[in-house]
Amino acid sequence: MVTLRIRVHTGVxxxxxxxxxxxxxxxxxxxxxxxxxxxMANSTRKCKSCGEYRLAADGVKVPAGWFCCHAHAIEFARxxxxxxxxxxxxxxxxxxxxxxxxxxxxxxxxxxDVKPLSYWMKRAQAAVNAYVRARDAGQPxxxxxRPDDGSHQRxxxxxxxxxxxxxxxFCEINIWASCSVCNNWLSGNLVPYxxxxxxxxxxxxxxWLEGPQEPKRYRREEYQAIEAEYKAKLxxxxxxxxxxx
Length: 245
Fold this sequence. Notes:
Strand content: 15-25%
Distance between the termini: 78 Å
Structural class: alpha+beta
Order of helices and strands: EEHEEEEEHHEEHHHH
Oligomer: single chain
């Protein structure tokens, strides 16, 4: 705080050094001398580094801000430069990761582009089989009637074999859940399979499966579409099952 001596003149109060008006008198003899206290503007400032308040005249003013001493100004500048460097390194790391991801994606695409048709056929068949097993969950083996109690492996068994009738490879009414014994060791156990299949879909559809079929050759894009379709159907099936619980 600075104490200023103020002289009062007629009608106006004048403070040496820029005082404030305190009132209006007629003559100096009537009002006499008046003492006033006022706070100087910006007499103290907060250091941008340590947060302490110091006299403004004793500090250091730089473009980055006001500091109470040169050491704090240097320390702040070093910290700022260090943070800027860390940000640049982080950005460079993110950019490098993005480049690596792009390279990895291109590499995966090149590897997939040279995969044979059999690779895509197996992926499509696996998606169809997974859907069939989920669709028939809880139902007994189509051939021997063994219950789905978790005591044996479950397969997706083709009535008309996929190798002998590739045109029916992905036909849903030609694929049903069975136990691994019937599918692997009894070649599908077709006699009881046929009887159960007639009970499920009717004799007309069974005879259609047994009749002549138009040959079918699949392209890679078609295998990929089948895989995507049955993955979506399996997801929807599981979602509906969870919603019904």
